[in-house]
Amino acid sequence: MTDYSAVMGNYGRADLAFSHGEGSWLISTAGERYLDFASGIAVNTLGHSHPDLVAALTEQAQKLWHVSNLYQIPEQARVAKMMAERSGLDKVFFCNSGAEATEAAVKMARRTMHSEGQIGRHTILCSEGAFHGRTLAMLAATDRPIFREGFGPMPEGFDHFPFGNMNVLRDRLLKDAASEHPEIAAVMVESVQGEGGAKPLPDGFLKELRDVTNEAGCLLIADEVQIGVGRSGHLFSFEPSGITPDIIAMAKGLAGGFPIGAVIATEQVANTMTPGSHGSTFGGNPLAMAAAAKVLEILDDKFLADMRERSALLYDLLHDLSDRHDAITEVRGAGFLTGLVLKDGITPVAMTEALRQHHLLVVPAAANTVRLLPPLNVNVAEIRHAVAVLDQVLGALG
Q1: Rounded to an integer, what distance in angstroms lies between the CA atom of residue 98 and that of residue 196?
Q2: 20 to 30 Å CA-CA from 117: which of 186, 245, 376, 387?
Q3: What backbone torsions phi and psi does residue 295 show, to the nearest 5 degrees?
Q4: What is the average per-residue pLDDT within 149-176?
């Protein structure tokens, strides 16, 4: 038995460890195969041991791992160009995680207002139920007490609006903009709340939000940390709405499992980030850039179109499942960020544990929801197998 006594106990870990992975499957240290519909919490974009990713990292590892941002890093220039062109924005900052990306996005929004002489505009509006990370500032951006307990007081400059309620948000933004001393610098939203329970914003919400932030003179931050990098079926989840945010925060699946974060911004925002205004020791290191470049190459239009077909099949099968099992009260989400809302009396933790006993890995979430987060290259047979396991477990739950 491995002795974990020296490992801090801030995670509720399952009694399960893995030795290696193959595509959508993980193999435990006991030699048992598990179908991975967790993907490291939406991180393993292309599953496990993808040969192209292995080759890209192996090649780069034989050259350079880290040099720091004291010097030019040509690999950054390449990936930044790819991300700017596909997002419609202009410049990219690299870091190492989602919390770093959202925190940097907030700093950029405040810095932009300060640079434009709007010193008092520093408040960031976030949705109720949002999750933007675990730094102190991002705990303030999150309104759920479970994440904040024992870490107060919270930093100032964050407030919340009811999820999906455009009337309340519009009134708040326009009233603030018309005041003598406007305070709101930006609105930060997830188009689909991941930790919040795979909850998508209402149809048309992002378009209205873009219009009203323009009218109010504040910025729009798209938190694409979990729903981005193709998980919605598009490289950026806001693409179908036809909008362009001012700032995009990304991480998780961007390098297919290698730690990375990134913020993409307009020229207006990026130009305020002068030398010394922000930084990251490890951000944009050559290893992360090699992995990110390969992921972005693979997630082309053809791949994403095929992925949308496979995710549509998953939703069809899950809706059929919900018709036969009253344990599921709703199927929601987008692409391969799928939520199964469970009836009262069945908890996400209990459902996750039951599925794990049948060698299917999923992720619990808020709002009594279980998330299905398969690799984006999961095949049709694996999708059908996952639904069959769900069928069996739901039947056993009655």
Answers
A1: 16
A2: 245
A3: -60, -45
A4: 96
CA separation for the pair 159, 337 (Å, rounded)? 26
User: How high is the mean pLDDT of the chain?
Assistant: 97
| Three-class secondary structure assignment of 180-202 | CCCCEEEEEECCEECCCCCEECC
How large is the average pLDDT for residues 131-157?
A: 93
| Alpha carbon distance 201, 216 (integer Å) | 21
146 pLDDT exceeds 90?
no
Mean pLDDT over residues 74-95, rounded? 97
CA distances from 146 to 58, 79, 149, 199 (A): 41, 37, 6, 19
pLDDT in tens, 208-264: 999 999 999 999 999 999 999 999 999 999 999 999 999 999 999 999 999 999 999
Which uninterrupted H or E stretch holds 92?
Answer: strand 91-95
pTM: 0.96
Q: Residue 153 CB: number of other CB atoms within 10 A?
A: 8
Burial class (CB in 10 A: 0-12, 13-18, 19+), 325: middle
| Spatial distance between the Cα atoms of 130 and 338, rounded to a whole number of angstroms | 16
53-298 CATH choice from 3.10.20.580, 3.30.70.270, 2.40.50.100, 3.40.640.10: 3.40.640.10
**So what's the pLDDT on residue 398?**
67
Dist CA 158 CA 161 (whole Å) = 11
Helix (H) or strand (E) holding 222: strand 219-223
Q: What is the mean predicted confidence (pLDDT) over 184-205?
A: 97
Distance CA 195, CA 226 (A): 9
Instruction: Match 């929004």 to its residue by tokens.
Output: 109
| Mean pLDDT score, 325-340 | 97
The fold adopted by the segment(s) 18-45+301-397 is Aspartate Aminotransferase, domain 1 (3.90.1150)
